[in-house]
DNA sequence: CATGGGGTATTC
DNA sequence: GAATACCC
C-alpha cells in the first residue's frame, strides 16, 4: 500500500537538548539527563552525542557514566511531590508539534519527542504549485536515500550527496526535469512524491530548529512503520528516504525485533515459533500461515 | 528496591 | 476499570 506519504520525526536526545537550551553551558560538551541521584548517581534517561562517544548509555547509573566520562555534565529532572516531573520536556514537545502543524493538518503525537506527519496532501499541493521546477541535489542537504547510501568509511558527505544525486536522476529521468508536468501518470509517481516530501521535510526540520532551537531526525516513506524504521538509519540531525522498491532488500537483513511492535513477545514468538529471524523471512509467510498461530488481527 | 514515569492500544 | 503488551 503506497498511497500515502508519511514522515516520522524524532527529536535527537530530546531531554538533553531541552536542558542545553536552558543552559548553554552544557552545549558542545558531554551531557546526560538523570532522574533521581541519591542511588548510584541516578538513572540516565537521555544522553547527548558527545557523551555517547565515551560509551555513556541510557539506563546507566550516573556513577557508572562518570567512570566512563569524568567530565560528563549530569542534569537532574525536576522533582515534584517526590517524583520525577517531565512537564518541561512535555511542554517543549508541544512547541515542536505546533511547528509541524504548519506543514500538515494531520499530525500524530506519538510520544514526548516523536510525531508522525501525514504529508500526502502537502506534497500534492507543492507539486501542483511548483510544477516546472525540479529538485536539485543540493536542496536535500541532510537527506539520505536507502539503497543509495552505501558508505565505505570516510567521505560520508560525499557518499550521501552522490547517492541523492543518483536517486533523483533515476526518479526524474535524465536531467531531473523531464516528463513534466508531474502527475500520477508519471512512471515513478511514488518516488516523485517521496522526493518532494524530502524537500518539505528539510524545510520542516529547519522550521523546527528556527522556532524552537531543537534538532531532529526524520524518516520519509509511505507508511508509519517504514518511516519509523527509516528515521533510525541516519542520526542525528539527518533524514532518510526509504523508497518502496528498496524495502525487500532492507528486510532481508533486518531482525524482526527492530520493527515497531515486534520488539517484545510477539517478535520473539515469530522468531522461535515461525522461524522468522529477519523481516525477509516474515514477508515470505502467507496470511494463512500467520492465522494458524495468531488471532486474525495480529496475523 | 534499584530504570522508571508515562503514553496508547487491546482485551476481558 | 483492570490487566497486559509495547513503546520512548
TrEMBL record:
UniProt organism field: Penaeus vannamei (Whiteleg shrimp)
Chief location category: nucleus
Annotated UmuC domain residues: 6-263
A GO term, aspect molecular function: metal ion binding
A GO-annotated cellular component: site of double-strand break
Signal sequence, start to end: none
Stated name of the protein: UmuC domain-containing protein
Keywords: DNA damage, DNA repair, Magnesium, Metal-binding, Nucleotidyltransferase, Nucleus, Transferase
Cell compartments where the protein resides: Nucleus
Lineage top rank: taxon: Eukaryota
One GO BP: response to radiation
InterPro entries linked: DNA/RNA_pol_sf (IPR043502), DNA_polymerase_eta (IPR052230), Rev_trsase/Diguanyl_cyclase (IPR043128), UmuC (IPR001126)
UniProt cross-references to PANTHER family, sorted A to Z: DNA POLYMERASE ETA
Pfam family membership, one: POLH-Rev1_HhH
SUPFAM superfamilies: DNA/RNA polymerases
Amino acid at each position: 500500500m503506497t498511497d500515502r506519504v508519511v514522515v516520522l520525526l524524532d527529536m535527537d536526545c530530546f531531554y538533553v537538548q531541552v536542558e542545553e537550551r536552558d543552559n548553554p553551558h552544557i552545549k558542545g560538551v558531554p551531557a546526560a539527563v538523570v532522574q533521581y541521584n541519591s542511588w548510584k548517581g541516578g538513572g540516565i534517561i537521555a544522553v547527548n552525542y558527545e557523551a555517547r562517544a565515551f560509551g555513556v548509555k541510557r539506563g546507566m547509573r550516573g556513577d557508572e557514566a562518570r567512570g566512563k566520562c569524568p567530565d560528563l555534565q549530569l542534569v537532574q529532572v525536576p522533582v515534584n511531590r517526590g517524583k520525577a516531573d517531565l512537564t518541561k520536556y512535555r511542554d517543549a514537545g508541544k512547541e515542536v508539534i505546533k511547528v509541524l502543524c504548519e506543514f500538515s493538518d494531520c499530525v500524530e503525537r506519538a510520544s514526548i519527542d516523536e510525531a508522525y506527519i501525514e504529508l500526502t496532501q502537502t506534497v500534492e499541493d507543492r507539486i501542483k504549485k511548483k510544477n516546472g521546477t525540479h529538485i536539485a541535489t543540493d536542496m536535500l542537504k541532510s537527506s539520505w536515500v536507502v539503497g543509495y547510501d552505501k558508505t565505505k568509511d570516510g567521505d560520508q558527505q560525499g557518499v550521501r550527496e552522490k547517492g541523492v544525486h543518483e536517486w533523483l536522476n533515476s526518479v526524474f529521468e535524465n536531467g531531473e526535469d523531464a516528463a513534466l508536468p508531474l502527475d500520477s501518470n508519471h512512471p515513478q509517481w511514488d518516488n516523485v512524491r517521496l522526493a518532494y516530501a524530502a524537500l518539505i521535510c528539510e524545510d520542516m526540520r529547519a522550521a523546527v530548529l528556527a522556532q524552537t532551537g531543537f534538532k531532529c531526525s526524520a524518516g520519509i516513506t509511505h507508511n508509519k512503520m517504514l518511516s519509523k524504521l527509516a528515521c533510525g538509519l541516519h542520526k542525528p540531525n539527518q533524514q532518510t528516504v526509504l523508497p518502496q522498491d528498496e524495502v525487500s532488500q532492507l528486510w532481508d537483513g533486518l531482525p524482526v525485533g527492530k520493527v515497531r511492535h515486534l520488539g517484545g513477545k510477539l517478535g520473539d514468538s515469530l522468531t522461535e515459533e515461525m522461524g522468522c529471524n529477519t523481516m525477509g523471512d516474515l514477508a515470505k509467510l502467507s496470511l494463512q500461515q500467520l492465522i494458524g498461530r495468531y488471532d486474525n488481527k495480529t496475523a
